[in-house]
């Protein structure tokens, strides 16, 4: 009798909330086969919310799990209603229900952020729930109650300075407006509006903002030089993966030069302690190694990050490149960076094929 009364309450709520004959909503609700506990919980809400439950496109198992999570105190009633309200849209996020609940249960994610991320991951073509949580952990994005991520304030500001167009979502009226300068950005942030990329054919989501967030905090001085160049000459095809590679080229190239420079200094210091005749006989080696050091200093950005990392695994990079120059049969010192690149390629082959053990390459 008690469940019958609750079903009658749900039926009455649907009829009260929807003016026309929507008995099919009630029939669809009954066809879901909800447990008595879930029906009892649903019946406690007002007419509008009960209608929302009836119109959901979620599977019965998903709804049951959400109510169970609320009963366990994993999520709140507000979290549940936020998720259910968005469930009238395509429900690609249902496959992440276990990840969603477990992440909160383990204390990895605050329940409100998790609920907002769960809805965001439900949009076709957007990242999965775990991807959304990862993006938020980078500091480049934050969840919103509006069904999408917003750019972090600092990342948005850096993006504007690089020349990217942004837009804001205004909840009142559910409208989008372009942001053309930092003043408009500050106003939008103060009003609590979400900040998004404009649709320009360029798809920066999600890696480019993550890289902007990472690089704007780097300690190598790369970011300022990057902005100085790209703010005026920015390549429209720039994306997160390319920016990441450019940064790694810079970072590992810088590390490569530091190591080569140190090796050259040690080489010269050792050479100064040798007899004059030996120094004289080593004049060519001294000249070539100096050219190697200069080439790495001036042109390390022409090496891929992988090539630089490969050379950094050498016990003595300077000797490795010098040996490559000798084996190449070249007498010219021009285009020395090509010799450096070839040394990296050859060393990678030797490593992969294990033809020469690392301990013998000294």
Any chance you could write out the topology, listing elements then pairs?
Layout: H1 2-17, H2 23-31, H3 36-42, H4 47-55, H5 60-71, H6 77-86, H7 97-105, H8 111-120, H9 129-137, E1 141-142, E2 150-151, H10 153-162, E3 166-170, E4 175-179, H11 182-190, E5 194-197, H12 207-215, H13 222-233, H14 240-272, H15 276-281, H16 283-299, H17 305-312, H18 317-328, H19 336-353
Provide an overview of this structure:
It is built from 19 helices and 5 strands. The relative contact order is 0.05. A hairpin with a 4-residue loop joins strand 3 and strand 4 (175-179). The protein is mostly helical. The strands form 2 sheets. A 3-stranded antiparallel sheet has the order 4-3-5, with helices on one face. The model has no long low-confidence stretch (mean pLDDT 85). Helix 1 packs across helix 3 and helix 10 (153-162) packs antiparallel against helix 11 (182-190).
In short:
Helices cover 62% and strands 5% of the residues.
| Strand order, largest beta sheet | 4-3-5
Provide the structure class. mainly alpha
Helices, by number, come to 19
- Rounded to the nearest angstrom, the distance between the terminal CA atoms is 86 Å
* Oligomer state of the chains in this structure: single chain
Low-pLDDT segments: none
- Give the biggest sheet: 3 strands, antiparallel
* Topology as a string of helices (H) and strands (E): HHHHHHHHHEEHEEHEHHHHHHHH
* Mean pLDDT, all residues: 85
- The number of distinct β-strands equals 5
| Range of helix content | 55-70%
**How would you sum up the global shape?**
elongated
């Amino acid at each position: 009798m008690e469940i019958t009364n609750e079903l009658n309450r749900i039926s009455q709520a649907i009829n009260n909330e929807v003016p026309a004959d929507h008995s099919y909503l009630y029939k669809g609700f009954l066809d879901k086969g909800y447990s008595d506990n879930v029906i009892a919980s649903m019946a406690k809400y007002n007419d509008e919310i009960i209608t929302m439950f009836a119109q959901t496109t979620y599977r019965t198992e998903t709804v049951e799990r959400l109510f169970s999570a609320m009963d366990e105190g994993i999520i709140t009633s507000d979290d549940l209603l936020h998720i259910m309200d968005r469930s009238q849209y395509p429900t690609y996020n249902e496959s992440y229900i276990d990840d969603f609940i477990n992440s909160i249960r383990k204390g990895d994610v605050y329940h409100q952020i998790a609920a907002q991320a769960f809805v965001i991951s439900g949009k076709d073509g957007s990242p999965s729930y775990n991807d959304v949580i990862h993006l938020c952990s980078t500091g480049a994005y934050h969840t919103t109650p509006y069904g999408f991520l917003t750019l972090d304030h600092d990342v948005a500001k850096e993006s504007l300075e690089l020349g990217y167009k942004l837009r804001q979502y205004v909840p009142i009226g559910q409208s989008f407006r372009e942001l053309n300068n930092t003043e408009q950005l500050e106003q939008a942030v103060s009003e609590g509006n979400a900040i998004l990329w404009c649709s320009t054919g360029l798809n920066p989501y999600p890696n480019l903002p993550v890289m902007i967030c990472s690089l704007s905090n780097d300690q190598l001085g790369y970011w300022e030089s990057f902005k100085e160049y790209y703010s005026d000459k920015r390549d429209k095809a720039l994306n997160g993966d390319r920016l990441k590679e450019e940064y790694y080229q810079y970072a590992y190239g810088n590390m490569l030069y530091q190591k080569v420079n140190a090796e050259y200094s040690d080489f010269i210091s050792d050479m100064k302690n040798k007899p004059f005749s030996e120094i004289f006989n080593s004049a060519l080696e001294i000249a070539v190694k100096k050219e190697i050091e200069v080439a790495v200093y001036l042109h390390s950005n022409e090496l891929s990050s992988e090539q630089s990392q490969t050379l950094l695994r050498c016990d003595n990079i300077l000797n490795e490149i010098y040996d490559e120059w000798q084996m190449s049969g070249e007498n010219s010192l021009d285009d020395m960076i090509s010799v450096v690149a070839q040394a990296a390629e050859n060393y990678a082959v030797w490593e992969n094929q294990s033809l020469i053990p690392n301990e013998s390459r000294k």
